[in-house]
Amino acid sequence: MRRQFFLILTPLLVFLALSASAQEIRKMKIGELQSFIANADHPLIINFWATYCVPCAKEIPYFERIVKSHAEQKVELVLVSLDLPAYYPKKIAAFVKKENYSSAVFWLNEFNADYFCPKVDKTWTGGIPSSLFVNNKSGYRRFFERQLTEEQAEKSIEDLVK
Question: Using an 8 Å Cβ cutoff, are 105 and 26 in contact?
Fold first, then answer.
């Protein structure tokens, strides 16, 4: 009897553990993202990336490290995937898990860059990685349409929290 109990319980526990560790990839439209940014009550970094973007994959780990070092200022990093619809959610989630990203991940459900890019920043031509730094309390807003070095990311986050 005890053996049957463990044979039933073990797969259930494994399933629950995997489900709990799987990161949700939230789908959103540009208006929802704009609202999320406008209503943020803490310093926010929105990083636009894709699973196929090598510079993106290089940049995100040091963004996460630096953000963790600024936990007392409540800086939040949000990763906004610009991957194709076929990648949502499974391929994006698998990539996030493989790379061990801990930040919130959104998938932008938009396909016309001429429409959504200027809603993020008027200068954005659609290149990635791109990052938007926003602190609504101080009025700080800065956009980068390029990969930042670790030093540039650190400086930008320090400027964000001033």
Answer: yes
CB contact at 8 A, 82 and 128: yes
Share of the chain above pLDDT 90, in %: 86
β-bridge mates for residue 144, sequence order: 131
Mean pLDDT of 95-110: 98
Specify the 3-state DSSP secondary structure of 133: strand
- Is the alpha carbon torsion for 94, 58, 42, 139 positive or negative? negative
User: Which tokens sit at 41?
Assistant: 């009550």
**Could you tell me the pTM of the whole model?**
0.86
Cβ neighbours for 128, distance < 8 A, ≥ 6 positions apart: 48, 49, 50, 53, 55, 56, 82
What is the mean pLDDT of the segment spanning 137-148? 98
Q: Count CA within 13 A, CB hemisphere, residue 132.
A: 25
Report CA dihedral (40, 145, 63, 66) to the nearest 10 degrees: -80
- pLDDT at residue 151 in the model: 98
**pLDDT, position 23:** 78
The CATH fold of domain 24-161: Glutaredoxin (3.40.30)
